Amino acid sequence: MASMSEPSTMRTVLATSALTTPIKSGALTSPRVSFDFVDVSPVHKAFAPMVRDQAFDISELAIVTGLQAIAFGRPIILLPAVVASRFQRGCLITRRVGGVTPDQLAGRRIGVRSYTQTTGMWVRAQLTEDYGLATRAMRWLTRDAAHVEQYRDPDFIEHADADLSLLDLLREGTIDAAILGNDLPKDEEFVPVIADAAVKDKAWYEKHGFVPINHVVAASVAASQRDPAALREAYRLLVVSKATLHGESGEPSPYAFGFDTLRGPVDTIVDACVEQGLLPRRLSFDEVFGPAHAILDGMAE
């Protein structure tokens, strides 16, 4: 443990955003903790090393990966800190010519980078909620394995040739739709499957009260045991950074902090993961955040 006269250094991966820039730039600092930032781009390439080898003390982590890591006993701790959220319905795309509509998806083949990808989880959950489509009603074609090695895809998942991109598979008709993320195509060859995605997203937000969560912050158990006070301070800096942000009036924030804030969203995600075969069993909220609560107990949210 670092002495009180010197900060504890945390090897850290966080994507650059309005939330993290003040910390990564050094504009927001603490005498109690310092960060050895590791540049991993795209950030999802840090997820497997984090859950498999605890390659970092602190790392951004997809919420589905984090829940699977807990279910399979990996030595990581999830903090009640959401650092990336977005509305997901527009991430499901199809061909402009010869594409599909939501009512045509049953029995169709949909491509996604990994079955465990959090954006894919959200799209499937919202297809169930909006159109009554059970996950098994559609055929799923994937390329990448799960970040958590112990997880195995359900038996209704197919695996694609890794030499072809999802857009290539969509163009040639191997798949009828694809789930993408930040790499949504800009050209007019592809269109959203859900034409009124933005309208449905707004209604969903008004009903549920949160933006669909993509990434949270995780810490290795070893780092939390080595210096829990430094981990508390790292969390505090993120909370302070969020408090300085001034988003557009009325616009939902992609960031969220605190156990009470995340109780409902995490329960929603766990339910979806169970329906989709992403978890071997249902996780309680205490399983998900109990270790973090023991470390952060008493901190203001």
UniProtKB/TrEMBL annotation:
It comes from Luteibacter rhizovicinus DSM 16549. This is SsuA/THI5-like domain-containing protein.
